Amino acid sequence: MIVKNEEQVLPACLESVRDLAGEIVVVDTGSTDATSRLAAAFGANLFSFDFSTVDFAAARNYAIARARGRWILMLDADETLDPACREIVAQLVTANENVDENSGYFLERHNQGADPQSAFTDYVVRLFPNRLNYRYRGRVHETIDASILAAGGRLQQTSIRIDHKFSCDPQARRRRNLRYIEILKEEIAADPTDTSRLDFLAAEYHQLEMFEHATAVAEDIALLRPLDPRAHLFVGVYHLLYKPDLPRARADFMQALKLRPGYAEAESFLGLTEEREKKSRQTEAQAK
Predict the structure, then answer these.
(1) Do 145 and 123 contact (CB within 8 A), yes or no?
(2) Residue ranges in the chain whose pLDDT is less than 50
(3) How many helices (H) and strands (E) in the chain?
């Protein structure tokens, strides 16, 4: 894990994996509180990393390079491994102990803020073999998925659950969003071919409710990934809900369905589009 000023949450995280791993590698990016002392108390191997240039992938890769075990379980300090899943992790690792495993494993992450209405679940690759060509990419919103696939590996789903309690301070989150937007723009300028950075840029704009900007980025993604049904689905959602343009929304969902026949989400949104088109026609007829 990589950490900075995590004294409030780090003990629960480390307790959740106590005795599960043969070693705990903690990379500190500049803590000024008791984080380092707490990590040492849990027997962690502690390292420092210069984070004057924000680069989460570099920090994570620095941690991986210092791990001696055959498997990596990557956690953030505000996450805990569900106690019921410890045995699943152990069994998966043991089953592949004598196999040159070439896979990354999705964990089910349950995200919970102070407001229960903000809870959501997503899936993140956090368990993988310790291989030299498995490395994170992206200064922010860093992922290891692409390097696993590039190495000919697979991404597999598991029932392993981690719980994530994130900060809901709106001002802090806004500052982070704005900072990430600038970093993402720098990454896009440096490598325009990496369209995954655009996905995260749209998400940052969306969180800030800058929907015109998010729509523009979603339109770029659909142009750059014309054979990706999800790209057409997402831009359709923006044309339907956030920057209404019903004809374009209809075309977007139709294209998504053309690329992926039976695409349930596209069918659902297309139906909603048709309902709104019908209501619009009725309103126009009544006005006449």
Answers:
(1) no
(2) none
(3) 11, 8
Alpha carbons 120 and 203: distance in angstroms, whole number: 15
Q: Domain map of the chain by residue range?
A: 2-165, 170-287
- In this prediction, residue 72 carries a pLDDT of 96
What is the C-alpha separation between 188 and 180, in angstroms, rounded?
12
Q: Ramachandran region of residue 30, left (φ > 0), alpha (ψ -120 to 50) or beta?
A: left
Domains 2-165 and 170-287 share a fold: no
Give CA torsion, residues 119, 122, 124, 126, to 10 deg. 40
The CATH number of the domain covering residues in 2-165: 3.90.550.10
- Rounded to two decimals, what is the model's pTM? 0.86
DSSP per position, 47-83? EE---SS--HHHHHHHHHHT--SSEEE---TTEEE-G
CATH class given for the domain over 170-287: mainly alpha
pLDDT per residue over 74-126, tens digit each? 999 999 999 999 999 999 999 887 778 889 999 999 998 777 777 899 999 99
3-state SS string for 91-121: HHHHHCCCCCCCEEEEEEEEEECCCHHHCEE
